[in-house]
Amino acid sequence: MTAPPARMTQAQRSGRTRERLVTAAIDALYRYGYAAVSTTLVAELAGVSRGAMLHQFSTKAQLMAEVAETT
Questions:
Q1: Neighbouring C-alpha atoms within 13 Å toward the C-beta of 47
Q2: Domain 11-70 belongs to what topology?
């Protein structure tokens, strides 16, 4: 019998959420252009709640700065 998989830490879950949001933001920029991208749209594309989005990036500017740093 094998042990159950280890549960992710809060930092790991937060990092994964952040990655999903940045990836979704890049996709949204490519598909819709900067003017049409909103934090609400990015949260929807990433499959996370608006609250989770705002916890990681409270403004579009913060999200776009992170996108610029990762690309």
A1: 4
A2: Arc Repressor Mutant, subunit A (1.10.10)
Mean pLDDT of the chain: 94
Alpha-helical regions (H) of 1-71: 10-32, 39-46, 50-56, 60-70
Rounded to an integer, what distance in angstroms lies between the CA atom of residue 50 and that of residue 30? 21
Q: Is the pTM of this model over 0.90?
A: no
Q: 68 is written with which tokens?
A: 């610029």
Domain boundaries, the chain: 11-70
Neighbours of 39 (CB within 10 A): 19
